[in-house]
Amino acid sequence: MFSLTEWRIELIPPDEEGSRFYLDYYKPFRLAALEQDPDVFGSTHDREINFSNDDWLSRINNPLVKTFVAVRLHDRKVLSATSLIGPMPNPDPASNPFQVSSEMKNGSDHHHQNHQNHGEASSVRFQISGVYTLPDARRQGLAKILAETAIQEAFAYSKQHSKRLELSLVVYTSNGDAISFYESCGFVASAEGARKSFNPHKNASADEICMHYQKSPE
Ligand SMILES: CC(C)(COP(=O)(O)OP(=O)(O)OC[C@H]1O[C@@H](n2cnc3c(N)ncnc32)[C@H](O)[C@@H]1OP(=O)(O)O)[C@@H](O)C(=O)NCCC(=O)NCCS
């Protein structure tokens, strides 16, 4: 069990210090998460272990991705993480928001062009993704604090742009623990129910459900 007396929430900054932290501390955390809980993520350990440093850093350098971490102060170990991705282009939450955001950043995505063609929208859409707490640090409120931090950040963006916020996530229907967690944070499962999604990284299909944030900002 970790002692959680000395940790704090940080946003990994897109600068040199953030890049170093990302490679030295976030990357091992992420790889351990993919190895420990392969069934809950769209990506795989086999895929990400082969990422170059540039691949890793493209996430931190993507202005559409903000990664919040709970860090143990004495050794900088990452205990829990959550990413906020957006603004997203399409009304339907993406199964692979990291990929969509990196395609948008690189300007090669047709979703983005669609978005541009449809002019100013009345709302901004964000997604929560990459949610994980180390097994020894679970049920101590870390993921919830991180989710609340990400939610506040998304509301701040929507307020700044005078738009309504649509905040969503996608979770496998088999992941009951995560669904309970998201419900405890104020997300409600979409009335449209489950959808089947093909995952090219796993060469398999799985049922997933969208959840939407339903509370007003604090
Ligand atoms: C889901 C997960 C991120 C929760 O992290 P955590 O830091 O343990 O969550 P918190 O301690 O902040 O939990 C807050 C609340 O969520 C709910 N919750 C959390 N884990 C739960 C579980 N396993 N079963 C049921 N409810 C749960 C509870 O209401 C909890 O409050 P409580 O502990 O006072 O009862 C963690 O279990 C995890 O990393 N799972 C594997 C990765 C994963 O599934 N990620 C989501 C991919 S979409």
Structure explained in plain terms:
The protein is built from seven helices and eight strands; from the N terminus they run E-H-H-H-E-E-H-H-E-H-E-H-E-E-E. By secondary structure, it is of the alpha+beta class. It has a single domain, classed as 3-Layer(aba) Sandwich (Aminopeptidase). Strands 1, 2, 3, 4, 5, 6, 7 and 8 form an eight-stranded mixed beta sheet that branches. A hairpin with a 4-residue loop joins strand 7 and strand 8. The longest helix is centred in the first third of the chain and has 21 residues, at 16-36. It starts with 6 loop residues before the first strand and ends in a 5-residue tail after the last strand. Mean pLDDT is 91; it is low at 109-119. It binds coenzyme A (COA). The site of coenzyme A (COA) has 20 residues, from strand 4, helix 6 and helix 7.
